[in-house]
Specification:
Elements (H helix, E strand, L loop, with lengths): L4 E7 L2 E7 L3 H19 L2 H4 L3 H84 L8
Antiparallel strand pairs: 1-2
Length: about 140
C-alpha cells in the first residue's frame, strides 16, 4: 500500500494541506477542479451578494451535480459495455454454431463426393457391361 502523503494546495487563494494516498499531481487536480468551480460560482453577479455559507452550499450543489452526472455517464457506459459483451458472446456462440454446421456439411459433402465416385465407377461398369452385351466383347486383337 502507498504511503500517505501531504500536499500543499491553493484553493480560493488560501493554502491548504491535503493528505491522502494519492500522488501530488492528483491532489493538485482536485484543488484545481474546486478552484474552477469557485470561479464559476463567484463569476455570477447574483451570487456575490449571498453569504459565504450560501456560496459554499451552492458550490457543494454544483460539485454534487457534476458527481451525479459523471456517475450516470459511468453507469451508462457500464451498461453499454455489458450490452457489447453480450453481443460478442452471442456472435461467438453463433460462430461456433456455424462452424459446427460447416463441419457437418463438409463431412456430408465428402460422403456425397465419395458416393458420386462410386456411382460414376458403377455407371462405367454398367455402360461397359451393356456395351458388351449389345456388341459382344471387343478383343484388342480384332482392332
Amino acid at each position: 500500500m502507498s504511503q500517505k502523503a501531504n500536499t500543499e494546495v491553493i484553493i480560493g487563494g488560501k493554502v491548504y494541506t491535503m493528505s491522502g494516498y494519492e500522488d501530488e499531481e492528483y491532489l493538485q487536480k482536485v484543488a484545481s477542479y474546486i478552484n474552477n468551480k469557485l470561479s464559476e460560482i463567484n463569476g455570477l453577479d447574483s451570487i456575490r451578494r449571498l453569504s459565504a455559507d450560501m456560496r459554499s452550499i451552492l458550490l457543494s450543489i454544483n460539485i454534487a451535480d457534476d458527481y451525479y452526472k459523471a456517475l450516470s455517464r459511468v453507469e451508462k457506459l457500464e451498461n453499454d459495455v455489458r450490452a457489447k459483451e453480450q453481443e460478442v458472446y452471442d456472435i461467438k456462440h453463433e460462430l461456433i454454431s456455424l462452424q459446427v454446421k460447416l463441419e457437418e456439411y463438409e463431412k456430408k459433402m465428402d460422403m456425397l463426393t465419395s458416393q458420386n465416385k462410386e456411382l460414376e465407377f458403377e455407371k462405367k461398369n454398367l455402360e461397359k457391361a451393356y456395351e458388351d452385351k449389345l456388341l459382344g466383347p471387343v478383343n484388342s486383337s480384332d482392332k
